[in-house]
Design goal:
Blueprint: H1 3-9, H2 17-25, E1 31-36, H3 39-47, E2 53-55, H4 57-65, H5 75-87, E3 96-99, H6 107-120, E4 124-127, H7 147-162, E5 173-178, H8 180-184, H9 186-199, E6 203-206, H10 212-221, E7 229-231, H11 243-249, E8 253-256, H12 258-278, H13 288-291, H14 302-309, H15 312-322
Parallel strand pairs: 1-2, 1-8, 2-3, 3-4, 4-5, 5-6, 7-8
Pfam families: PEP_mutase
Protein name: Isocitrate lyase/malate synthase
Keywords: Lyase
Length: 331
């Protein structure tokens, strides 16, 4: 069965994953995309019934490069990982939303990123306004580029999208992300998204919102009907919104980047530790009590601890030595 015939049999007329994502966004319920980072996580998310996937930058950096989310990823890293997630669905029609960091350069590089992501089958990407040496949006000491440079990135992305040789509904979606809230405040962040919406971005992403009141302020000042994405990060700076709560706040898309990442890391550590101490992996443990794995729960330090395990402190120390105490700063 081909992708087109499979989509038709499920009641969808979409011809590309991007078109399928647009269909999902047009429906009343919020689109929920769990974070995936390799073939196993993508397969399990699909088996659980999810209709969209999020190729998390932090998870991809960890799984492919064994590094914390400090700007190590290149375009080919994400495209390669997202390609595995896309192939996890035999029909290749499940939308994959992918992190694109800063677009991996200035306007020409951003345009190439959009074209390459689209060609690989990625349904949507988000481009942010951090400097090239970026870091996870829920770490401290972020730096952002000027409004004009951010707008040039979004404009280049929109132009590249509109130049794709296919119908508008089949084209990759551009999600404009701003990290300005943590650096310059809510008013600057909203203004940047207003400019992105006027430039033609398909969706907005205000990273690191700290309260429901900030969400309400953003929605009140952004164009009515312009869809927004919620980043539901466990142990991050935003409230622990459920999918229902995110929908009630007005979001159209909610990504849960840690939903697979943290439990997998905890389970791996438990099993490898069990093997070290008991000479057998926890998957072969016959005692039910010993086979239990603590997956961590809503750990307020979950994100920071995960990055620590991925070598965050090592990278920070290298930066401090090279920059005489400057550089990354406190993360």
């Amino acid at each position: 069965m081909t992708s087109s015939s499979s989509a038709a049999s499920s009641g969808s007329t979409a011809r590309t994953p991007a078109a399928r994502l647009r269909e999902l966004l047009s429906q009343p319920s919020i689109v929920v995309a769990p974070g995936v980072f390799d073939g196993i996580s993508a397969r399990m998310a699909l088996q659980a019934g999810h209709k969209a996937l999020y190729q998390t930058g932090a998870g991809t950096s960890a799984s492919r490069l064994a590094r914390a989310d400090l700007g190590f990823l290149g375009m080919s890293d994400i495209i390669g990982a997202a390609g595995v997630s896309i192939m996890a669905d035999p029909t290749m029609m499940t939308p994959v939303i992918a992190d694109a960091d800063t677009g991996f350069g200035t306007a020409p590089q951003v345009a190439r990123t959009v074209a390459e992501y689209h060609r690989s089958g990625i349904a949507a990407l988000h481009i942010e306004d951090q400097v090239q040496s970026k870091r996870c949006g829920h770490l401290d000491s972020k730096q952002i580029v000027s409004q004009s440079e951010f707008l040039s990135r979004i404009t280049a992305a929109v132009h590249a999208r509109d130049s794709l040789p296919c119908s508008p509904t089949d084209r990759i979606l551009i999600i404009a992300r701003t990290d300005a809230l943590a650096v310059s405040g809510i008013d600057e962040a909203i203004q940047r998204l207003q400019l992105a919406a006027a430039a033609g971005a398909d969706m907005g992403f205000l990273e690191g919102m700290r309260s429901n009141s900030e969400v309400e302020q953003a929605f009140a000042q952004l164009p009515q009907g312009w869809p927004m994405m919620a980043n539901c990060v466990t142990g991050g700076k935003s409230p622990l919104w459920t999918a229902k709560e995110a929908q009630e706040l007005g979001f159209r898309l909610a990504i849960f980047p840690c939903a697979g990442l943290f439990p997998v890391a905890k389970a791996l550590l438990a099993s490898y530790t069990h093997l070290m101490h008991d000479g057998i992996g926890i998957e072969a443990e016959t005692s039910k009590e010993k086979a239990l794995v603590d997956l961590g729960g809503a750990d307020p330090m979950g994100l920071r601890n995960f990055f620590r395990d991925m070598g965050l402190e090592h990278e920070v120390e290298i930066d401090r030595l090279a920059a005489s105490g400057a550089g990354l700063g406190d993360v």
